[in-house]
Design goal:
CATH class of one domain: Mainly Alpha
CATH superfamily of one domain: Hypothetical protein af1432
Order of helices and strands: HHHHHHHHHHHHHHHH
Oligomer: single chain
Radius of gyration: 18 Å
Number of helices: 16
Number of strands: 0
């Protein structure tokens, strides 16, 4: 068993695997014929159904007609919108833990992940890529920090020293633990049976040039991650993490002049999302 698997097995803050995600993600390939399938998947998850209907009936999504069922939600809002709500509601349960090893409060990882997801979606859609996959990859990109937080708690002094003047925590993680959070996150998603494309994007979100089939998706997440930090939606060490930004921009052929537009769109959307999902940071 590798160090990563041992860390995953010992992670005390991990919630049960989000079983619905591996089943919902493939439905994106044919949203029209799979609308009923997503209804069936959600219907038998009581907590997910309740939370999804709460979100659907919020001022952000409401169109004046009360939504009383999952089928009605899909009919009124459309498959894509319901998919994003499902991913966000599922992600909220996974990403709300306090990560003492990284100096992260209970909503810090969730807030950063949502900002990254929104930015990645905006970038991907602007480029004609799959915005839903980018949103999902952005939301899940730092799940490895849930895995590595506990072992880093016992190495607090060493971790602080190693990251004092670093641009990213990755070298310190590798030196102290033998792996980094991107690798741990990718392995966790593999164990959750998440599709390989998303796994690759998470593993390479700090080094998109090394990705193969997931290179553009990894670049979207890498750039979104950097922009989220630049907006102030970072946490813990390296509150202005810009590693990989130029590399990702080159892969996606995005000029620096276009980046402020993505940031402006994200600020506007996050104001509503923070209220919607009870974010306080």
């Amino acid at each position: 068993m590798t160090n990563i698997d041992q860390y995953i097995d010992r992670a005390i803050h991990l919630v049960p695997a989000p079983h619905i995600l591996p089943q919902v993600i493939p439905l994106l390939n044919d949203t029209r014929s799979n609308a009923i399938r997503i209804v069936d998947l959600i219907l038998y998850d009581t907590s997910l159904t309740a939370n999804m209907l709460r979100v659907c009936n919020s001022a952000y999504y409401s169109r004046g007609t009360p939504i009383e069922s999952v089928l009605q939600a899909v009919t009124l809002l459309g498959f894509q919108q319901v998919y994003r709500i499902v991913v966000a509601v599922t992600g909220a349960a996974t990403l709300s833990a306090q990560l003492k090893g990284y100096g992260v409060e209970s909503t810090g990882l969730w807030t950063h992940s949502v900002a990254t997801a929104v930015l990645a979606q905006g970038i991907a859609e602007d480029l004609g890529d799959n915005g839903d996959m980018a949103f999902t990859a952005g939301l899940l990109h730092d799940t490895g920090k849930i895995v590595l937080s506990e072992p880093l708690e016992s190495l607090a002094d060493e971790f602080a020293e190693e990251t004092a003047n670093a641009a990213t925590v990755v070298p310190a993680e590798r030196k102290l633990l033998g792996c980094d959070h991107a690798q741990a996150g990718g392995r966790l998603l593999e164990r959750w049976k998440i599709p390989d494309t998303l796994v690759g994007a998470v593993i390479y979100h700090h080094d998109p040039a090394s990705a193969t089939q997931s290179q553009r998706l990894a670049a979207c997440v890498c750039l979104a991650n950097a922009l989220a930090y630049s907006m102030g939606h970072g946490f813990g060490h390296q509150a202005l993490s810009l590693t990989g930004r130029d590399e990702a921009s080159a892969i996606l052929e995005i000029s620096p002049a276009r980046l402020p537009g993505y940031v402006d769109q994200c600020f506007e959307k996050l104001r509503s999302i923070k209220t919607l999902y009870n974010l306080t940071t």
